[in-house]
């Protein structure tokens, strides 16, 4: 008995394709056909027309609403095993419409197809064939006319097959298996077997990144910082338990304090090292909240930790802090965190050495190093042959000149040979200078330079310690 011709599920409005009678429509599934589908696995393949990593992750996360079996196929594919979800969502047609609506909501142009094997569903979607292929008997016929490029084989393999007149999946399936494996590799033969269900196709399940979000509505409005911290304490304790169970830590947490009429007050805190210690987080959060000016009383609080990192607690040191280096790293990290909590995120920072010859372009501000002796503040770049001062002025300061020599609180005595720096012609900030080490009347060592271009001015650029 011939089945009803298939209709297309558009995401968004792909060109209609010619369908064979073996493909079932998305609407109007007959009860016998639905029962036949229910007896096997059914996979939904989603192909993103414009690959984007963020969109792929967002779609995979949303797909867990329909099934726990979600797999990513970077850079442009998502697979869902939906056989067990058909009854819950009212059949293939309703489920397909729900997935299509989600793609439209996220503004993700995509093509959706259903097939009994994951690779077949993905290949149909890649080829722009939004079909429902319910059983294995219909699968080979639907795949036969599709181009081999939908399998994403290497260009060299596709070229060799095309040279032999093999350009479609059906033509490749008709080739002798032994000869195909010998000429084009066992892996490609195994892919064809997985495509039509001859062998199992195991897929790695997608795991959404773990994050912590807990909210607490208060029974009364609070204005005192101590009372707010008391209300946050159960959330911090729950965060510590959450992190310990997963052997993870946090390097940044965010606290949202909600009010009646004004937008929530956001308090974000970044740590120097990862931690899972709720007491430590509570102490730092208290430092951060104490100077905070609240626009209104607080009627609710929320604690967020969206980025979890692997965490291994430090072993206690035999030596006390300061003795033979005992506990130096942890003490330094704690000091950095307390200073940032009290003074602000921008008040404490690290330094990063950059490649270059212009002194003002050889360093940059970075986040504080995670521990003493590590982090972006340490550089393995070779130190210049000439001596450089540690303290550079924000901008070179002009010096007075008499008889062609610089002066600062009297005449300066130039020491040693000059260091010539000519650089920056490619970015519009070209410099041409001769740097000298100079000593003033009080014995202070200065770093000065003379411009090579007229009028050959002298400038103070740094001070030696």
Short structural summary:
The chain is α+β, with helices and mostly antiparallel strands. It contains 13 helices and 18 strands.
Question: What would you say this structure looks like, in words?
Answer:
- The chain is α+β, with helices and mostly antiparallel strands and 465 residues long.
- The chain has 3 domains: 31-195, Alpha-Beta Plaits (2-Layer Sandwich); 214-310, Dna Ligase, domain 1, CATH 3.30.1490; 391-463, no CATH class.
- The protein has helices spanning 31-38, 53-63, 86-89, 92-105, 118-126, 136-143, 155-163, 169-173, 177-184, 186-195, 225-246, 278-289, 328-343; strands at residues 43-48, 70-73, 77-81, 110-115, 212-222, 248-258, 265-275, 298-305, 308-310, 350-353, 363-366, 391-398, 400-402, 405-407, 413-423, 431-439, 445-451, 458-463.
- Helix 9 packs across helix 10 and helix 11 (225-246) runs antiparallel to helix 12.
- It is flat, with a radius of gyration of 33 Å.
- The termini are far apart.
- The model is unreliable at 1-39 and 371-381 (pLDDT under 50).
Tell me the number of helical segments per DSSP (H or I, 4 or more residues long): 13
Number of strands: 18
Radius of gyration: 33 Å
Find the structural class using helix and strand composition.
Answer: alpha+beta
Determine the N-to-C terminus distance: 94 Å
Supply the CATH class of the largest domain.
Answer: Alpha Beta
> Unreliable runs, pLDDT <50, ≥5 residues?
1-39, 371-381
What fraction of the residues are assigned to beta strands by DSSP?
A: 25-35%
- Name the average pLDDT: 82
CATH architecture of the largest domain: 2-Layer Sandwich
What's the number of domains?
3
Overall spatial form: flat
In CATH, what is the homologous superfamily of the largest domain?
Reverse transcriptase/Diguanylate cyclase domain
The helical percent reads 25-40%
- CATH topology name of the largest domain, in short, is Alpha-Beta Plaits
Largest sheet: 5 strands, antiparallel
């Amino acid at each position: 008995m011939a089945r009803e011709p298939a209709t297309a599920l558009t995401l968004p409005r792909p060109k209609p394709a010619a369908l064979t009678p073996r493909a079932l429509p998305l609407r109007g599934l007959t009860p016998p056909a639905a029962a036949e589908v229910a007896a096997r696995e059914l996979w939904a393949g989603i192909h993103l027309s414009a690959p984007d990593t963020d969109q792929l992750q967002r779609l995979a996360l949303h797909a867990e609403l329909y099934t726990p079996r979600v797999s990513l196929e970077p850079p442009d594919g998502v697979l869902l095993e939906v056989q067990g979800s058909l009854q819950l969502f009212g059949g293939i047609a309703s489920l397909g419409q729900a997935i299509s609506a989600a793609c439209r909501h996220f503004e993700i142009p995509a093509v959706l197809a259903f097939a009994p094997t994951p690779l077949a569903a993905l290949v149909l979607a890649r080829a722009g064939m939004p079909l429902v292929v319910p059983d294995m008997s219909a699968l080979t016929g639907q795949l036969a006319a599709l181009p081999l490029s939908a399998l994403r084989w290497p260009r060299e393999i596709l070229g060799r097959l095309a040279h032999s007149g093999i350009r479609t999946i059906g033509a490749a399936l008709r080739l002798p298996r032994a000869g195909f494996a010998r000429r084009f590799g066992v892996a490609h033969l195994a892919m064809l077997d997985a495509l039509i269900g001859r062998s199992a196709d195991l897929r790695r399940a997608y795991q959404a990144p773990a994050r912590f979000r807990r909210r607490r509505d208060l029974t009364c409005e609070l204005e005192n910082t101590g009372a707010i911290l008391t209300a946050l304490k159960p959330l911090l304790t729950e965060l510590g338990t959450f992190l310990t169970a997963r052997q993870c830590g946090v390097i940044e947490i965010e606290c949202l304090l909600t009010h009646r009429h004004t937008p929530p007050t956001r308090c974000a805190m970044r740590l120097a090292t990862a931690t899972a210690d709720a007491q430590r987080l509570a102490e730092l959060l208290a430092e951060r909240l104490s100077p905070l000016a609240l626009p209104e009383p607080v009627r609710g609080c929320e604690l967020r930790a969206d980025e979890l990192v692997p965490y291994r607690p430090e072993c206690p040191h035999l030596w006390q802090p300061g003795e033979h280096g005992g506990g130096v790293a942890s003490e330094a990290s704690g000091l950095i965190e307390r200073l940032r909590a009290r003074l602000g995120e921008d008040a404490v920072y690290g330094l990063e050495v950059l490649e270059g010859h212009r002194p003002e372009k050889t360093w940059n501000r970075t986040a504080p190093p995670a521990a003493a002796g590590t982090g972006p503040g340490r550089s393995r770049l070779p130190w210049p042959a000439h001596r450089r001062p540690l303290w550079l002025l924000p901008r070179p300061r002009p010096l007075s000149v008499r008889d062609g020599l610089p002066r600062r609180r009297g005449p300066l005595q130039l020491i040693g040979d000059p260091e010539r720096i000519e650089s920056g012609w490619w970015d519009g900030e070209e410099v041409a200078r001769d740097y000298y080490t100079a000593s003033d009347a009080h014995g202070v060592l200065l770093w000065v330079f003379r411009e090579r271009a007229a009028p050959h001015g002298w400038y103070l650029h740094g001070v030696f310690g």
